[in-house]
Structure formats: structure tokens, C-alpha cells
């Protein structure tokens, strides 16, 4: 991570809605009034269960789908307002790597051809220069040189993902959205891959938006984390702080579901089991969207949507009853249990949480 961070964010997402229209004109609000900013050089994690809207946000960030409402600004500029040709040119600086290692690789092309292709399309350099650059990039992501001439079906998932990373780097992006990039890989190679991402970030001065349903992965790589539930961000803050003491009941439930190993002092913690699935996207719950599954829900939660509140500097939560970690605990009226700062363990295995980032104040817009 680059410590010398400029004041200006690389990405500002403001009041973003993304609505899909299905058959019979049914609307799915996949993303609902989401706001956040990402600073150059940081890794911004987005965590949440499947269907919470993470990928939809990720695709919008790299200009693959437009906002239905709200704005996405890259270096202060609304790229969606540009003419199509200019948008295509400018979006090269914002790339995405998907979960499926086959997603961006043409089965009829060798790896070096696939990696070279973005330069071919952009018409950058001579054919020979493009190939040399592709070979160098494959080497940089630790692909054995002889693999460059193979087809995707002739290599492993991890090797394919390395080729995808090389391809994403060819147009010298400033920001890469990493959407579940290690989810399809063997656990044994996930740590290697995450280390590769960290090395590349340093070398190319990259900014990442790191999307995952896996808390350990997000904790391992992120400076700050946004927790998404059903199209909304419900908690946002420094990764270390969220892992230490999640404030939103949904984040607490996600953390409590983490597998062992658990620090000794927390071995007796209560596991919070969420009832039911995420509700139907066609019929969102009233008030707080989490009330149908929240172990702490009260009647107010059904009636009124919680405000997006900054509880401590840089720490935002959308829950009527959440309180800052050091304030007097709010009491759950139903159970008598405190609602602030659910304590959980932070991570498993050899993975470690990134240090809490930049102390300077950094305001998020209301979600
Ligand atoms: N192209 C689309 N058309 C219709 N609905 C979509 C489309 N893409 C995503 N959705 C819906 O939007 C919601 C969020 O999906 P997604 O962003 O893929 O979630 P996540 O990445 O968190 O699993 C889901 O209800 C999904 O079914
Ligand atoms: S507002 Fe109510 S339902 Fe929503 S997270 Fe807080 S306690 Fe749970
Ligand atoms: Mg997804």
C-alpha cells in the first residue's frame, strides 16, 4: 500500500442505485443508495453474502454497467457522461478480474495471445512490442515461460488466474476490481495468489477494490472494508477495527460464522446463526432490510430505515442501536444483551489483517 496518499480519491461513488428490469417489467434494485470513496494506493474490501450486490457495484466501478441513479467519479470525473468512444478509452485505467479464471481467456487463443489482446485492440505499439510486453507480464506474474504458448485448457485454474491478472495489467490500470479472484482456487494456492496481488500493488502503484464473500480474504488484503447486505452498505471502516469489534449485527453474524482457529479468549463466544436466506430481491423488507434475519430486531426496525451514522471517525454503521466501541453499550430491549462492539476473532491460518490505515480524517457520504 502506498503510504503517501494524495488527498483526492481515485474513486467516488455517490448515492448509487443500480436497478435491473426483468421480464414483466419487474425491477430488482441490486444496489441501493450506496456511497463510498477509495483513495489511490489503498485496498478497499467489499464483503457480503452472495446476492448482496458486490459484483454489480464492481462492474459499475469499471464502467461495465451504468448507474441507474447517483454518480461514479474517477479522479473527480464522471466517465459515464463522456461520449462512448472516449468512455471506452478512459475506462482502460479501471480493470476487473473475475472469479472464473476462464472468463477473460479465449479458449482458442494461447495465453500470450490473450494477454496481448488488450494492446492489440487499443492499437498500442508494434506486434512484436506487444508480444514482448505480454511475455514480460506473464513472467512478472510468475508464469513459467513455456506456459505462455499453451491454451487455457492445458493449464491449471491458478495459472489461468495469473494470466488474467497479467492481461488486466497490460493497459497500465490505476485501479483493479478483484471480484472473488481466489474463490475458485484451491485453498493451498490462495495465499500465494494474495501475496502476488500485494506485490503487484507495490510495484505498479495499484488501487484495489477487493470483493469477496470470504472474510479471511478481505481481512488479509484490505485497508478498509465495506459490509454489504441486500444492496446496501451496512458498515464501513478500517479493516482492523471492523475485525476487532464489528458494530452491525450482520457483520457480527458474519464474523461469528468464521471457522477455527479462534483466539483462546474467544473460544466460548456465541455463534450467531442467521435465520433464512437473503430476502427476495423483488420484495425488499420494510425499514431495516436486515430485520427479517437480525437476532436483535425490534418493532422500530420494521418501521424505520436506520440512518447511516459515523460512530467514530471513519467508522460508519446503519443500525438504530449500534454504538461506538467505547461508549456505554446500548441494550437490546428484548434480550438485555449489549449491542455495541461484538467481539470476534479476526482471521485464520497464516493470514493477517492489514494494519489500520491512514489516520487522517476521510469522510464518507451518507448512504
Ligand atoms: N444482469 C442482471 N439482471 C438482473 N438481475 C441481476 C443482474 N445482475 C445481478 N442481478 C441481481 O442483483 C442482485 C445482486 O447480484 P450480485 O451483484 O451478483 O451479488 P453478489 O456479487 O454480491 O453475489 C442479485 O439479486 C442478482 O440476482
Ligand atoms: S436496525 Fe434493527 S434490524 Fe437493523 S441491524 Fe439494527 S437491530 Fe437489526
Ligand atoms: Mg458476485
Tell me what you see in this structure.
- The structure is a single chain.
- With 367 residues, the protein is of the alpha/beta class.
- It has a domain of 238 residues: P-loop containing nucleotide triphosphate hydrolases (Rossmann fold).
- It is built from 10 helices and 11 strands.
- The strands form 2 sheets. An 8-stranded mixed beta sheet has the order 5-6-7-3-8-9-11-10, sandwiched between helices.
- Strand 8 and strand 9 form a beta hairpin.
- The C terminus is likely disordered.
List the helices and strands and how they pair.
Blueprint: E1 9-21, E2 27-39, E3 43-47, H1 54-61, E4 69-74, H2 84-90, E5 94-97, H3 111-122, H4 127-140, H5 157-169, E6 175-179, H6 187-204, E7 207-212, H7 215-221, E8 224-229, E9 232-238, H8 239-244, H9 249-256, H10 299-303, E10 309-312, E11 315-317
Helix pairs in contact: 3-4, 3-5, 4-5
The structure holds adenosine-5'-diphosphate, iron/sulfur cluster and magnesium ion.
Residues 20, 22, 28, 30, 48, 50-56, 281 line the site of adenosine-5'-diphosphate.
Amino acid at each position: 500500500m502506498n503510504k503517501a496518499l494524495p488527498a483526492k480519491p481515485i474513486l467516488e461513488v455517490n448515492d448509487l442505485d443500480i436497478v435491473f428490469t426483468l421480464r414483466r417489467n419487474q425491477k430488482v434494485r441490486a444496489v441501493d443508495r450506496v456511497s463510498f470513496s477509495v483513495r489511490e494506493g489503498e485496498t478497499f474490501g467489499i464483503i457480503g453474502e452472495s446476492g448482496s450486490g458486490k459484483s454489480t457495484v464492481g462492474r459499475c466501478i469499471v464502467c461495465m454497467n451504468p448507474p441507474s441513479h447517483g454518480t461514479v467519479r474517477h479522479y473527480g470525473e464522471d466517465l459515464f457522461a463522456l461520449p462512448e468512444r472516449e468512455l471506452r478509452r478512459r475506462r482502460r485505467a479501471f480493470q476487473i478480474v473475475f472469479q472464473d479464471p476462464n472468463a477473460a481467456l479465449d479458449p482458442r487463443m494461447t495465453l500470450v495471445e490473450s494477454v496481448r489482446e488488450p494492446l492489440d485492440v487499443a492499437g498500442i505499439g508494434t506486434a512484436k512490442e506487444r508480444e514482448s510486453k505480454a511475455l514480460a507480464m506473464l513472467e512478472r506474474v510468475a508464469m513459467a515461460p513455456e506456459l505462455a504458448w499453451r491454451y487455457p485448457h492445458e493449464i491449471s485454474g491458478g495459472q489461468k488466474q495469473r494470466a488474467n491478472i497479467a492481461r488486466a495489467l497490460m493497459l497500465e490500470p490505476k485501479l483493479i476490481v478483484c471480484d472473488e479472484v481466489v474463490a475458485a482456487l484451491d485453498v493451498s494456492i490462495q495465499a500465494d495468489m494474495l501475496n502476488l496481488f500485494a506485490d503487484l500493488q507495490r510495484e505498479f502503484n495499484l488501487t484495489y477494490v477487493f470483493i469477496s464473500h470470504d472474510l479471511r480474504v478481505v481481512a488479509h488484503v484490505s485497508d478498509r472494508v465495506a459490509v454489504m447486505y441486500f444492496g446496501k452498505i451496512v458498515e464501513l471502516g478500517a479493516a482492523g477495527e471492523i475485525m476487532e469489534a464489528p458494530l452491525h449485527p450482520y457483520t457480527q453474524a458474519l464474523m461469528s460464522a468464521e471457522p477455527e482457529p479462534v483466539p483462546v479468549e474467544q473460544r466460548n463466544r456465541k455463534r450467531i446463526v442467521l435465520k433464512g436466506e437473503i430476502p427476495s430481491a423483488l420484495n425488499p423488507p420494510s425499514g431495516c432490510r436486515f430485520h427479517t434475519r437480525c437476532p436483535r430486531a425490534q418493532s422500530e426496525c420494521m418501521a424505520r430505515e436506520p440512518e447511516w451514522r459515523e460512530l467514530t471517525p471513519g467508522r460508519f454503521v446503519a443500525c438504530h442501536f449500534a454504538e461506538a466501541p467505547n461508549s456505554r453499550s446500548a441494550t437490546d430491549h428484548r434480550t438485555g444483551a449489549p449491542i455495541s462492539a461484538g467481539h470476534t476473532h479476526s482471521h485464520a491460518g497464516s493470514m493477517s489483517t492489514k494494519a489500520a490505515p491512514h489516520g487522517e480524517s476521510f469522510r464518507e457520504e451518507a448512504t
